[in-house]
Amino acid sequence: MPNSLPILEAEHPAAARCLSPLGRRAEIPLGIPQQAAQAAACERQATIGQITTGAGVPLTLPAIAEHFADLDPRAALLYAPTAGLRPLRELWRARLVGVDTSLPLVTNGMSQGLSLCADLFGCPEHPLVLADPYWDNYETIWHMRTGAPMRDFPFFDGARGFNLAGLSRRLDELTGPASLVLNFPNNPTGYTPTRAEAAAIVARVLRHPHPLVVICDDAYAGLTFDDDCMSGSLFTPLSAAADRERLLVCKVDGATKELVFFGGRVGFLTFGVGGAAGEALVDKAGAILRGTISSVNAPAQAAVLAALRDPRTPAQQEEVVGLLRRRYHALKAELDAAGLDALPFNSGCFALVRLGDHQEAQAVRLRLIREQSTGVIAVPSANALRVAFCSVEEADIPDLVRRIAAVVRS
Ligand SMILES: Cc1ncc(COP(=O)(O)O)c(C=O)c1O
Fold first, then answer.
1. Domains of the chain (ranges plus CATH)?
2. Which tens digit of pLDDT belongs to each residue from 226-264?
3. DSSP E strands, 111-230
């Protein structure tokens, strides 16, 4: 196996300088999956510990196999390669146009894609910059696991939109390698930058003078409901213009929300660089994946592959987006009518309802459960409640807002 650290040092200095101690060490060994792959075309297969006919067909019990009857048994019921099913990785990459990237690595949901980024680049000396409020798992993934300090900044610039000045100040404080998470459409705010804001974020990040890894968490890709929202991911303009001396861009996305396959746990980690550097990064992430879960659930990968090949899929996805768009408009109108203080939202699955200074988010959340049989999530750092309109029927949204208002206003 080629040693990926010298490749990165030569081909992508920013990536090499941003690696954590674990990231520097991570190497794919010439282990069982690699030796088996080298022998894939051999007439006799006596490499990997899979129970097969001898012609590569798994001898899975019918009691299991019949539940996956529509899927190719070799893809669904044998081990998937460490990096994921090759045709799935290729089809997922084909969705990214206009930019040279690595092949995506299949991850166990997007959480693992993020945690691989944290393993590769996060450590006590490499802080993570991110807008607050943020998805709470970032703290577990980066700070708890790797010790990376969290350097947050307020998400909104007053009530106007994305806080570019806050991002800029946090970047200005950095003196060495660091990571930056950009999550749009955002959890928990439900905000996606406008086109003008997106251009300004890209310009600011590209000016950053020190080695930086930008992780675009595109969990809610495609769920934008306002014409002003930027289209697509910041991954494309950032990686297209990235200077390898200073910037590496990663994309984490997946079938979880885009294909409404939450339990499938099929995510993807793609590096915004092709060639030897892209392969070296996939090898490093793959080595850590091999050392934890070994490979991602094959039946779920096979189902996602079948969906990507199915011509009905785009129309079915559009139906889901349309349904969420109607819920979004209904929620916006109801929050306005109820006079509740919603922070700007234009996308994704959530809206934040801000509370008064005298109210405490956890206490209001618990009262909503007790007094109105209504569950929401408390977001203390914004003194707000996160309302997941993705999981409330359009017809029930007026009632949901009425219940929230009854507690928030009392
Ligand atoms: C912003 C964000 N990133 C990543 C994830 C993780 O997705 P997965 O369930 O695929 O691990 C979530 C899940 O809610 C999320 O909100």
1. 4-26+82-309 (3.40.640.10), 29-67 (no CATH), 313-408 (3.90.1150.10)
2. 999 999 999 999 999 999 999 999 999 999 999 999 999
3. 128-132, 150-154, 156-157, 161-162, 178-183, 212-217
